[in-house]
Design brief:
The chain is built from nine helices and three strands. It is mainly α. It has a three-stranded parallel β-sheet. Helix 2 packs antiparallel against helix 6. The radius of gyration is 34 Å and the shape is elongated.
Length: 241
């Protein structure tokens, strides 16, 4: 009997010291079996975990943005899936200098994106025009003059880690939104509202020079000459002397 007790005590001591993993205890407490949340939190959690950026870039900052797609940085772990169609994207990262020629295309892409949508201005050239703001006649001095910007990311160019930081800050903004305030954030007008005043004009390069009588006479006169002389006859050089 004493031997049996000693073996039992040894087993109890071993069980207490080894701390074996036992079967989980099933409880009936409401707090441990039911998750209570709000519709805003659930909706925002789903959106901030699946931001789909538009695969779009305007200048050299896009090289840093494209580096995120590779395995070194792997921004898919944030739920960022690049989309080539603006109708399937909800995040526009404007990466690079925006020119007057690119501005209408940028606004069109933004307007084709479904609501809710967000914009990150990436790089100094996107935010203020950067080095081109002093003497360039075509650079847009800030993309916020064209479309609303949610987050500014300065740098020339920003590193991929900086883009991660911007996305994390944007996720915090998305997580604090409410469905009841969605109507206050919707745009009330289109940004590209000015209709063009383009007029059809005659083309400047119409081939009239090639059809001129002097050009034909030079070609006819150059038929019997050597190659170098023919080129000189077809394209005469005025001698300043």
């Amino acid at each position: 009997m004493a031997e049996a007790l000693s073996i039992g005590a040894l087993r109890d001591q071993r069980g207490a010291s080894c701390n074996p993993v036992g079967a989980p205890a099933v409880t009936s407490d409401l707090s441990e079996n039911v998750i209570l949340t709000t519709l805003d939190d659930l909706h925002n959690w789903a959106r901030l975990s699946s931001l789909w950026p538009l695969l779009y870039g305007t200048a050299c900052c896009f090289i840093e943005f494209a580096a995120l797609i590779g395995s070194r940085f792997d921004f898919d772990r944030f739920g960022l899936v690049p989309r080539s169609s603006p109708r399937q994207a909800d995040l526009l990262i404007v990466a690079g200098t925006v020119t007057m020629k690119m501005a209408p295309a940028l606004v069109r892409l933004y307007e084709q994106m479904p609501e809710p949508k967000y914009v990150i201005a990436m790089g100094a050239c996107t935010i203020t025009g950067g080095m081109f703001s002093a003497d360039s006649t075509t650079a847009v001095r800030g993309v916020d003059k064209l479309i609303p910007v949610d987050l500014y990311l300065p740098g020339c160019p920003p590193r991929p880690e900086a883009i991660f930081d911007a996305v994390i800050k944007l996720r915090k903004k998305v997580g604090n939104e409410a469905l009841s305030e969605r109507g206050n954030l919707l745009p009330t007008h289109r940004y590209c509202t000015v209709s063009h005043q383009m007029k059809a004009v005659e083309p400047i390069v119409d081939g009239r020079y090639l059809r001129a009588e002097t050009q034909k006479a030079a070609l006819v006169a150059a038929e019997g000459l050597p190659v170098a002389a023919a080129d000189l006859a077809a394209n005469p050089v005025i001698n300043p002397a």
